[in-house]
Amino acid sequence: MAQRAGKKRRVTAIHAKIRNKRKDWNHKTTTRLVREYDRIVVGNVSSSKLRKTRLAKSVSDAGWADLKQMLRYKAISLGIEYREVKENFSTVTCSDCFAKSGPSGLSGLGVRDWVCTCCGSVHDRDVNAARNILRIGHGTPIKGILPL
Ligand SMILES: [Zn+2]
């Protein structure tokens, strides 16, 4: 509304407020994570590459790059293990039997829960991916997902 009304100073103030809220959330979340855990493994999702796709807006909105950077320096300053691993196929690989049986392609992105056709495990897309990323971080190489 402020934008449409041409109120530039109001628009600037609103953007600053949103930016501060996001930064505050990022700080609180990363601080909690490094206090709670001894090892942090993150996927190497490239926010600069994603920014060029149609997911661009939601990526920069979420401030992923900032979040990862904060997590990294806080982990390092506390002496906690911090690793980034390749997360290719982490969402479609079954974290129980390692078969690539999950929903794939852009149309598959909307599927939040799926059942592995090989072992019958029921997966939440995000939890399954996190398990795969963590396992790679622990140094157990499996086919389809390689450590960096
Ligand atoms: Zn499976």
From TrEMBL:
It comes from Spirosoma montaniterrae. InterPro entries: Cas12f1-like_TNB. It holds the Pfam family Cas12f1-like_TNB. This is Cas12f1-like TNB domain-containing protein. GO terms for molecular function: DNA binding. Residues 64-133 form the Cas12f1-like TNB domain. Keywords: DNA-binding.
